[in-house]
UniProtKB/TrEMBL annotation:
This is S-(hydroxymethyl)glutathione dehydrogenase. GO terms for molecular function: alcohol dehydrogenase (NAD+) activity; S-(hydroxymethyl)glutathione dehydrogenase (NAD+) activity; S-(hydroxymethyl)glutathione dehydrogenase (NADP+) activity; zinc ion binding. One of its GO terms (biological process) is formaldehyde catabolic process. It catalyses: S-(hydroxymethyl)glutathione + NADP(+) = S-formylglutathione + NADPH + H(+); a secondary alcohol + NAD(+) = a ketone + NADH + H(+); S-(hydroxymethyl)glutathione + NAD(+) = S-formylglutathione + NADH + H(+); a primary alcohol + NAD(+) = an aldehyde + NADH + H(+). InterPro entries: ADH-like_C, ADH-like_N, ADH_3, ADH_Zn_CS, GroES-like_sf, NAD(P)-bd_dom_sf. Residues 200-331 form the Alcohol dehydrogenase-like C-terminal domain. Its cofactor is Zn(2+). Its EC number is 1.1.1.284. It holds the Pfam family ADH_N. Residues 30-158 form the Alcohol dehydrogenase-like N-terminal domain.
Length: 372
């Protein structure tokens, strides 16, 4: 196979608008697959890396990690997918053979983590370039390109019946929220849950909490425009910290007669992470950090909060093992167990992708889906 041209949104430097251009893409090498991206969501993590606060963001880069696509060509030795298969790229791959995969305790496969974090394919090079200058990959996926090359172990083969322009959201946001509730927290019927941040992730946490039959679901955001959707999806209480002149954790502890069983931080704000921990019930409450905070930022609380039984955890991709478990999430969607339409507040072509970032920063969108 020859090198091809692909239309992509290139981030040439931190904080700069993405530039839509034709760039060069080398064919897939051993263990790699050429995928045509049909649609991709825009997640806050893309904006985070574009901002320059991600220690792993290496420019120029092609962002995007919430995609759905179709296999176009196979590199040498690829056996688990075929041309024409529908796939969701995985920023958390699953090799099945590394210490992490074999442990059965985590979804954090480390087989290609080092090169992935440097914006490189597993052999230490890039497939993307422009005028001979390498353009870096992002999270092993780079879905803001019509064609992208992805390691075989980072592709989940899904049902061909699933609409890629919707189930692309299972490539990150929705799976992250559903999985954090079911796999990381293991919320049980009757539990009280607090969700901080009502973007794509927080709203998926709400759906997950409803599926787990949580008794009460408190939805917290400083943008009251998010409350209607949160209620529609099943939040029982909505709380705007700006309406109170005391710490929001104190408000929630009072509202719930001692604190919540589980809280989820879905923002990436280290101060809110503290509130999320401290609104948990003494003796057993657990707080799950999902939000991604910038380089150099740290969380803090009084150790007494943990001594007295609260637990701090984190969750990446909802603890979901992509190749073996994600196809089932797609099937659950097809079976009508949860919906995705509410998340998709905007759709547009790649040429308008900067608008998607503006809408996110203005708090006007949940998810924009880019159609190629
Ligand atoms: P988003 O921008 O769509 O939503 C964030 C929400 O937080 C917004 O509604 C905003 O109004 C609200 N918010 C901001 N500051 C707040 C505050 N101080 N108090 C209360 N609410 C506040 O973002 P998203 O796409 O839903 O992503 C949320 C976070 O999750 C990001 O940090 C993202 O990087 C991270 N993320 C992590 C994973 C993972 O696997 N751990 C996966 C996806 C996203
Ligand atoms: N590169 C950042 C860390 C970013 C991060 O935490 N990413 C999440 C997924 S966010 C998806 O929207 C994740 O899965 N992390 C696990 C991993 O191995 O990256 C940094 O701080 O260096
Ligand atoms: Zn994401
Ligand atoms: Zn592995």
């Amino acid at each position: 196979m020859e090198a091809i041209k692909t239309r992509a949104a290139v981030a040439w430097g931190p904080g700069q608008p993405l530039s839509i251009e034709e760039i060069d893409l080398l064919p897939p090498r051993r263990g790699e697959v050429l995928v045509r991206i049909v649609a991709t969501g825009v997640c806050h993590t893309d904006a985070f890396t574009l901002s320059g606060r991600d220690p792993e963001g290496k420019f120029p880069i092609i962002l995007g990690h919430e995609g759905g696509g179709i296999v176009e060509a196979l590199g040498e030795g690829v056996t688990s997918v075929e041309v024409g298969d529908h796939v969701i790229p995985l920023y958390t791959p699953e090799c099945g053979q590394c210490k992490f995969c074999k442990s059965g305790k985590t979804n954090l496969c480390q087989a290609i983590r080092a090169t992935q974090g440097q914006g490189l394919m597993p052999d230490g090079t890039t497939r993307f370039s422009k005028g001979g200058t390498p353009v870096y990959h992002y999270m092993g996926t780079s879905t803001f390109s019509e064609y992208t090359v992805i390691p075989e172990i980072a592709l989940a083969k899904i049902s061909r019946e699933a609409p890629l322009e919707k189930v692309c959201l299972l490539g990150c946001g929705v799976t992250t929220g559903l999985g954090a509730v079911a796999n990381t927290a293991k919320v049980k019927a009757g539990d009280t849950v607090a969700v901080f941040g009502l973007g794509g992730i927080g709203l998926a946490v709400i759906i997950g909490a409803v599926l787990a039959k949580a008794g009460r679901i408190l939805a917290i955001d400083i943008n009251p425009e998010k409350f209607e959707i949160a209620r529609q999806l099943g939040a029982t209480d909505v709380v705007n910290p700006k309406d109170y002149d005391k710490p929001i954790q104190d408000v929630i502890v009072e509202m719930t007669g001692g604190g919540v069983d589980f809280s989820f931080e879905c923002i990436g704000n280290v101060k809110v992470m503290r509130s999320a921990l401290e609104c948990c019930h003494k003796g057993w409450g657990e707080s799950v950090i999902i939000g991604v905070a910038g380089a150099g930022e740290e969380i803090c609380t009084r150790p007494f909060q943990l001594v007295t039984g609260r637990v701090w955890r984190g969750s990446a991709f909802g603890g979901v093992k992509g190749r073996t478990e994600l196809p089932r999430y797609v099937q659950r969607y097809l079976d009508g167990e949860f919906e995705l339409d509410t998340f998709i507040t905007h759709t547009m072509g790649l040429e308008d992708i900067n608008k998607a970032f503006d809408l996110m920063h203005e708090g006007k969108s949940i998810r924009t889906v880019i159609h190629f």
